[in-house]
Amino acid sequence: MDSPYPHTSRTIGVFDSGVGGLSVLQHIRAALPDAHLVYIADSGHVPYGDKSPAYIEARSLALTRFLVGLGAEAVVIACNTATAAAAHSLRVRFNRLPIVAMEPAVKPAVAATKTGVVGVLATVGTLESARFAALLEKYAGNAKIVTQGCPGLVEAVERGDLHSIETRRLVERYTAPLLKAGADTLILGCTHYPFLAPLIREVVDDGITLIDTGAAVARELKRRVEGELPPRVTQGGIGGETFFTSGDEAHATRIMSALWGGAVVVESLPDEFL
Q: Are residues 134 and 115 in the same domain?
């Protein structure tokens, strides 16, 4: 169907298990200033990390169908866990649609490390996925990759709890074994984690490199949009954003406004997509 958003704008759909994908949306907004961005926080089903791949695949399919129904011309899976569970099936199902996915930045991390040890902070679902195993096999080379599942961090970001003593203790607990193993480079392997980067920076040594993949995803999206989609006349203005949630609207509006850096209005997904 045609997009209900301004025809001078290209409509891009983005979804995540919750609010974490806003870290990617910020990079997309900078890369595609004319586009209208439609973001879904699937907070009624967060976290994805402890769900089965089949469950995550079903949610990803439903959310993509909703975005396509709103006229999305490309979709970004702004979630490492959903990428692992659903990227392939979404690309098969929506084979004419550019679908850009996340993956932990193993290649740039290996290039950045000086000690030869890279730490990965991620959800259990990401770390256990075949996709992540394939990334390690392809890009790890001689580097030692040390992984750490991080239960509780996604939930902390969903609460907007970015600086509390409890969240700090979680960060300390999860980074300690990676640092002890000699890691000088840490991959933020979940889109929620960049919002914790200031806290992580406080906890770890200044010499530790933190790697986030949001900017790379935005560059890939821009490349595919410009290379695969027909030209669209724009007015050179700033595109708008529309936000949806499968969780509580009032809570989502408060948290997402704080993370986005400006007031937003969050709508509830239609009942059939909850």
A: yes
